[in-house]
Description:
The structure holds two protein chains of two kinds. Chain A is an alpha/beta fold.
Amino acid sequence: MLGRAAGAGSRPHEKTGDPLLKVRDLSFKYPYEPEPVLRGVNLELFAGELVILAGPSGSGKSTLCRHLNGVVPHLSTGEILSGQVLVNGLDVAQTPVHEMATMVGMVHQNPDSQLVCLEVKDELAFGPENIGLSHEEIVARVEKALDWVRLRAAADLLTFECSGGQKQRLAIGSSLSLLPDLLVMDEPTTDLDPVGAHEVVATIKELRDELGLTFLIVEHDLDELLEVADRLIVMGQGKVLFDDSPATLLNTHYEELEAIGLRIPQHIVVARRLSAETGRNRSFSIRRQDAVQAFGDWAANSLPRITPGAAREVGPAEPAAAPAAGAPALRMKDVCFSYGPSAWTIQDVNLTVQPGEFVAIVGPNGSGKSTLAKLMVSLLQPQQGTVQVVGMDTRQVPVEEISQRVGYLFQNPDSQLFNTSVAEEVAYGMRIRHVSSDRIESRVAEVLGLLGLEGYKERHPFSLSRGERQRLAMATVLVTDPDLIILDEPTTGQDRKTLDSLIGLMEDWICRKQATVLMIAHDMDLVCRHASRTIVMSGGRIVVDGPTADIFQSQYAALAELSLIPPPVVEMSVPLVGIRLPDVLLSIADLDRVLSLKEPSGGSRRE
Amino acid sequence: MPVSRKKAGAPSQPLYFLANVRGTSWFHQLDPRTKVAYLATLVLVDLLFLDPRYLFAVFLTTVPIWITARINLRPLLPQITAVAITLLSLMLFMFSFSGAVGTSGRADPEQESIPFGPLVFYPASFDIGAVQLLRMGIPMLTSLLVFATMDPTAFARALNKLKVPHEISFMIVTALRFFPLVLEEYSNVSQAQRMRGQKPKGPINRLRIFYRMSLPLLIVLLRKSRDMGIAVESRGFGARRWEGTLRILTLNRRDYLFLAVVAAGALLALYVRFVLGLGWSWVI
């Protein structure tokens, strides 16, 4: 009945026989773009392979994926300039999408946008029902899919009740119930919290090992996937630039990959640094555990033991010392909030943030981070307790007034753009506050320059790229010169370069204005590199609050329990604190300092 | 401050919206076709009467169902409020309507009237208002009851069984599935606009804000619907073969019993209306 047998896969995957997927000289152009988005792409995938497709934004990865199951050209406008895509020998352009569905499964970035039914089992049955299977076959496939994606315990839930990770596994399962030969996944972990992302990656690994399924995965975050992938294909400007095993590629083309903006996992950066440091000029392993081990060995051989008195004592996490005297930027006292009658979303929150702090708020999805941020600016009102933001009581001052001194960058920049030109968009916040035209003009020019958007003044906001729209949304926030800026998941949909420039801007803002920045984030690397203080939320409560370094050192286990996995340098350095290192390392810059000095420095750790 | 009345971890807004779908009452367990048949019968019975007393009696027959279905009314309050506002507006409009219009087409200057500011109410029209209120209110509230207690997918299957084309039933399912997402996006865009300094004060300003919101909202929703469309096609929707289904709908004893009660009620209404000739004339 079911064609896919458990344990069908075996590693390593040999490229034998005919390829499952063959892309031959594919060039494609969207009607509204002057240049082709794909230029002569050649690619082959063999049964059982797990291949990662990486590359900077706009390199054509998603467009290529849409060709693989026929969404392009059947459901999308555009012109195939040359070439073809063959799956199991069938020309995709000549095969209807519903026929391709039984050969190529497709999983997209946002699970909410691809789930159709209300109940988990119905979602899994959706595909088999569409292709006209019998009741018995549908039931069998649903049961199998539940096991394959480990959703047995969630089988009777509504899809709305599922966590982010469960939803994405459900999306995978609903493709698998059609028993495809190839599963194409377009950034399947981007919209998930660390817990959900880890669940999805674990599911991918299991499916590959147990079912021998073939995967093509577009992904920016390569931390977990890279070491189990058979191949890494890197695209740039519509072409395949590199195609080889990840270990070979990273050992031979590291600089080029870094130069095109590939987000190289931190443990690989460490492995390469250590390899260079030992001077043996040998290839380095891309496995995280190997890097951790290598660092431990290097530290044991190269770093002197710290005398007991020299080690910085790290006690339980405490709130960070106020970086600036005077009135706090934010004070929340005994705050409780609930959307419905049955449960608190935010419970007993007490929080004081001083001007000049860069605070990260982390925690699993549903822990109340965004709700807390909305309470801070009066978009929501607490049922109990008080909130004072930049000296204003949110119960007495309306949002519009608070927004003059508090900026809020929403997760999706499109939510906050509505004018017809970039210049108008930035000017709007000042115009409605009746600022003089001269002042508006100079300030708009200043802010656009700050964000590198000075050449886009007359463009329509929605004609900009996602990264540019994010910067424009930031410009609309900065133009009013806020004292407090709240960033809600600034990492979503951003490549590393855009993100780094955005956060760099925030750090400058803090220095220049003694402003305060609160950032909701899932990216622990980002938190470690930039936040002076970290707040961990779980179940609507603040469970940990303190200086970032102390939290990642002393609350390591608590973070792991919440699946907030610290970056590799933290994992590597925590066991050595007090023995070889005075402090936990938070970033590659910290590591470089240790490597160059070959002895721990006790002072400031970060650049 | 000690907090004990609620546990942490509230449901999301879409989940709250669907809070009644998972009930275990006898009404929840009815086959969706039974519920659709009940709703259709009630609408027809509703049309049999013009006398508000008879219509009120029809309304009273729905009350035991609301009670025994153990509906949690709080999640339905926004919808109930919307229905109530619509009905009350309609009723007020009808009250200010001349009772004579129905027969002569002109207001009778002699009839009793009650001035209320710029409005004039006619007691003779009160019954017309009450009839319209009940005629529209009964099916609207009962629809709320039926849809609040039914999984949209099950509803689509019921429609398929009733020979409604799959494309249409699927459209209804996706619309219902999409509705909470629309609410969520509306809330996101609205909050983002307020953080840009927009004040939702006064009707003109509210209209202006709504106009400004429409572009981002439209773009976000178009993107979501495009993604959902691609996801649906990628899972073989275009094959349009639909033969077997995961769940097989079956009418059980409870359904037959309820349908018998509904049929008896409908027969009684027909008897009262056509044999006894009651319930068609206005009270006045």
